Amino acid sequence: MAERIIITLACSECKNRNYYFDRGKKQEGKLEVKKFCKNCGKRTLHKETK
Ligand SMILES: [Zn+2]
User: Which one of 7, 22, 36, 37 has the lowest number of neighbouring Cβ atoms within 10 Å?
Assistant: First the structure.
């Protein structure tokens, strides 16, 4: 059985958790991506959270 790691991306402005995806392998470092936040109504930086 492969280990599944669920990553949650939260908006850095409103802290809303908008995106979830699973990552097959554990990676080093924190993930930061620009994504659209429905709560803010614009693209914001989303950071990996737990
Ligand atoms: Zn937001």
Answer: 22
